[in-house]
């Protein structure tokens, strides 16, 4: 016995030695430390006293009855194949230690056991680490799986993964990773599969992840070996790329639609790169207007000699850099054949395939300007000898040639004209009343008569009617 106690004292594992009647014969220092006591007497003299001083739970924290305590199972002759129990002093509701126990039976004459030994290993740190990992694993919003290395069976799936795939935990746990065919796409590459099977680090890899309805979601995943479970395992984490793929597909479809609209537009358009101004696209109307075809691509607009006035072109390009757009700039262009083209030019900064570009719109107004010039010449010719025309016709011709800045109907009273001016300045009835020092009721009466005279029944109609005739300080 003395030699046995000397041997027990040197062990790192705890040992509790009993006789077959349940009397505790000897306890080594490691076993005392695992129970938070200093003397063997603090454990109790018998198995019964031990049970009165310590509370035990199963590995999953279910309270153990006294007959289920390792000491009593040992006395009953039941084997203890690495049984795991949680231990605390009697009265505590939280486990303080986690013991992994096994039994040893000793006899001298190959008959009934002479001594019984309970061998204890303190696995508290390992179980604490596992508990922390499990808590973090479950709380982690990123989808994740734990796969056992030796057979690649799914051990755990966190809520993020279940939410992403709509699988239940029962559908995954215990199934093999490749048997489920969870990973498709690049993840099926031999090198990636070999890394997973070897339990090695798996670099970030795109994959088509199987979901419960049989479809696939684009994800990026990575693998990391972990040792906080009973077996060696691989932690697989996932990031959902499906929204990005859908956005990219929608963007591609949108760009295809815009390209179709661009090609079919009846107005000449061209697209230039934002960095160097080179032409990357032209539509059919541009080809027809300028005579340039594929020869225009990868050239700058000024290299084609389109813009007659270099200063006008430079001013438009400067405005685009400063403001991002220009609207209705008048310019004279030259087609490839040298024919003059008068245009209204507008431009807007856009992005094509994520690259900044400029969309140019060239509206041909050559015919309209020619018609305006011809009409002006005709009116001037008539006005040179207009003695045979009536005064009213002369006034109308003069108005066509030189529109009056304020063409106010003669049938409006001065007060009505004054109120209409203020309406065109976007003033409400109360403000108009204050401005003219009259009552709001009087203003409403004038407005009602004004509506009747100009043929409208709403304020916006009066504003348009008045501004078309040059009324109000805010000119369209």
Report what the structure shows:
With 476 residues, this protein is α+β, with helices and mostly antiparallel strands. It contains 17 helices and 17 strands. Strands 2-1-6-5-4-3 form a six-stranded antiparallel β-sheet. It is elongated and about 150 Å long. Mean pLDDT is 84; it is low at 404-410.
Query: How many separate helices?
Result: 17
Overall average pLDDT: 84
DSSP helix fraction: 25-40%
Q: What profile does the largest beta sheet have?
A: 6 strands, antiparallel
| Shape, principal axes of CA atoms | elongated
Query: Cα-atom Rg, whole angstroms?
Result: 46 Å
Distance between the termini: 112 Å
> Which structural class best describes the helix and strand composition?
alpha+beta
Using brief descriptors, characterize the structure shown.
single chain, 476 residues, alpha+beta, 6-stranded antiparallel sheet, elongated
SSE order and pairing:
Elements: H1 2-9, E1 14-18, E2 24-27, H2 29-33, H3 47-53, E3 54-58, H4 70-75, E4 83-89, E5 97-106, E6 115-122, H5 124-139, E7 144-148, E8 154-157, H6 159-165, H7 169-172, E9 183-184, H8 190-197, E10 202-210, E11 216-226, E12 233-240, H9 242-264, E13 268-273, E14 279-282, H10 284-290, H11 310-323, E15 325-334, E16 340-352, E17 355-364, H12 366-384, H13 391-401, H14 414-424, H15 429-436, H16 440-454, H17 459-468
Antiparallel strand pairs: 1-2, 1-6, 3-4, 4-5, 5-6, 7-8, 7-12, 9-10, 10-11, 11-12, 13-14, 13-17, 15-16, 16-17
Helix pairs in contact: 12-13, 14-16, 14-17, 15-16
């Amino acid at each position: 016995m003395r030699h046995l106690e000397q041997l027990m004292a040197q062990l790192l594992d705890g040992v509790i030695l009993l006789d077959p009647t349940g009397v505790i014969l000897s306890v080594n220092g490691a076993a005392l430390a695992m129970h938070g006591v200093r003397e063997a007497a603090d454990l109790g003299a018998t198995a019964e006293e031990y049970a009165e001083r310590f509370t035990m739970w199963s590995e999953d924290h279910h309270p153990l009855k006294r007959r289920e305590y390792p000491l009593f199972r040992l006395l009953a002759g039941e084997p203890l194949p690495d049984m795991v129990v949680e231990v605390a002093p009697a009265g505590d509701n939280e486990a303080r230690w986690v013991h992994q126990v096994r039994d040893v039976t000793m006899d001298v004459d190959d008959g009934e056991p002479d001594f019984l030994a309970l061998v204890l290993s303190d696995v508290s740190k390992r179980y604490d680490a596992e508990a922390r990992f499990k808590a973090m694993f479950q709380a982690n919003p990123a989808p994740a799986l734990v796969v056992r290395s030796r057979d690649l069976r799914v051990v755990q799936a966190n809520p993020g993964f279940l939410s992403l795939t709509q699988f239940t935990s029962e559908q995954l746990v215990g199934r093999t990773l490749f048997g489920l065919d969870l990973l498709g796409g690049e993840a099926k590459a031999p090198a990636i599969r070999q890394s997973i099977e070897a339990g090695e680090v798996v670099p970030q890899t795109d994959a088509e992840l199987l979901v419960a309805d049989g479809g696939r979601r684009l994800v990026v995943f990575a693998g990391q070996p972990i040792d906080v479970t009973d077996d060696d395992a691989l932690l697989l984490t996932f990031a959902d790329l499906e929204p990005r793929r859908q956005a990219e597909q929608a963007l591609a479809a949108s760009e295809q639609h815009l390209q179709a609209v661009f090609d079919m537009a009846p107005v000449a358009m061209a697209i230039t790169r934002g960095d160097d101004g080179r032409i990357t696209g032209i539509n059919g109307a541009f080809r027809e207007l300028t005579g340039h075809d594929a020869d225009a691509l990868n050239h700058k607009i000024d290299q084609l000699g389109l813009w007659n006035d270099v200063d006008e072109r430079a001013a438009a390009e400067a405005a685009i850099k400063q403001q991002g757009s220009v609207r209705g700039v008048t310019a004279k262009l030259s087609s490839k054949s040298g024919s003059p083209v008068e245009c209204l030019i507008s431009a807007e900064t856009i992005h094509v395939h994520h690259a900044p570009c400029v969309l140019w719109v060239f509206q041909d107004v050559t015919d309209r300007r020619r018609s305006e010039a011809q009409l002006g010449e005709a009116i001037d010719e008539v006005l040179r000898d207009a003695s045979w025309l009536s005064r009213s016709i002369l006034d109308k011709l003069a108005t066509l040639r030189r529109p009056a800045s304020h063409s106010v109907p003669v049938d409006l009273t001065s007060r009505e004209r004054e109120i209409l001016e203020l309406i065109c300045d976007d003033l409400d009835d109360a403000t108009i009343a204050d401005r003219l020092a009259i009552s709001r009721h009087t203003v409403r009466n004038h407005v009602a008569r004004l509506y009747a005279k100009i043929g409208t029944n709403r304020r916006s109609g009066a504003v348009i009617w008045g501004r078309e005739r040059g009324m109000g300080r805010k000119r369209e």
